[in-house]
Design brief:
single chain; 147 residues; alpha/beta; Rossmann fold; five-stranded parallel β-sheet; 5 helices; 37% helix
């Protein structure tokens, strides 16, 4: 994908003349949530971001708000994990893209999710801003080749 250089006044071409995305971020660490929010707003300043700390709140938001992308940490405050959010999304909202983050090494994440019918796409922490930008842009633009 090629990108057009942007100035603060020039929006990313992929989002011109379209509805701006709503992104649900499920992350209990405020710093990580802020990084994700900044990356999303860098791609589209007009996007709506719903940031929550628990899976329980995430499920309530999903029931009441259409979203275009879900990004969830694996380990969250509360009783539910990111895998619970993943399974709920796959069951109730299968067309809504989602990816997960965690500080687990990739082999440990794959082992933990081995029994999940469809393993979630995974962005391991610590991630670079460029890796995060690539993941978010791919999902918001509909290029889901990262599955």
């Amino acid at each position: 994908m090629t990108s057009t250089p942007r100035t603060p006044e020039t929006p990313m071409l992929a989002f011109e003349n379209v509805r701006h995305p709503t992104v649900l971020i499920v992350e209990d660490e405020a710093t990580q949530r802020i990084v994700l929010e900044r990356v999303i707003h860098e791609l589209d300043r007009e996007s709506e971001i719903l940031g929550v700390r628990t899976g329980e709140i995430a499920l309530k938001i999903l029931e009441n708000n259409p979203v275009d992308l879900v990004i969830s940490d694996l380990f969250l405050d509360g009783r539910l994990t990111g895998l619970n959010v993943w399974n709920y999304c796959k069951l109730k909202y299968p067309k809504v893209p989602m990816f997960m983050t965690s500080s687990l090494p990739v082999p440990a994440f794959l082992q933990l999710t081995r029994d999940v019918a469809e393993q979630p796409p995974y962005l391991p922490k610590p991630f670079t801003i460029d890796d995060c930008r690539r993941f978010v842009a791919a999902y918001l633009m509909g290029d889901l080749c990262l599955h």
